[in-house]
UniProtKB/TrEMBL annotation:
This is Acetyltransferase. It comes from Pyrus ussuriensis x Pyrus communis. One of its GO terms (molecular function) is transferase activity. Keywords: Transferase.
Length: 52
């Protein structure tokens, strides 16, 4: 779970020149938000607010 989250974070926060596919980044970002929501117990704290 964590390796996938790290890879998605890199693709989301890396300059668009290196990742010219916004749909992929958006998909990863939504996945990160869902994962962090599950990890934080759904209270929206911690890394959840950072991932948005």
């Amino acid at each position: 779970m964590f390796p996938v989250e790290i890879m998605c974070r890199v693709s989301v926060f890396t300059p668009a020149q290196m990742f010219p596919t916004p749909p992929l980044s958006l998909c990863c970002m939504s996945g990160i938000i869902w994962l962090n929501w599950k990890v934080d117990g759904g209270d929206g704290s911690g890394s959840f607010s950072v991932a948005i």
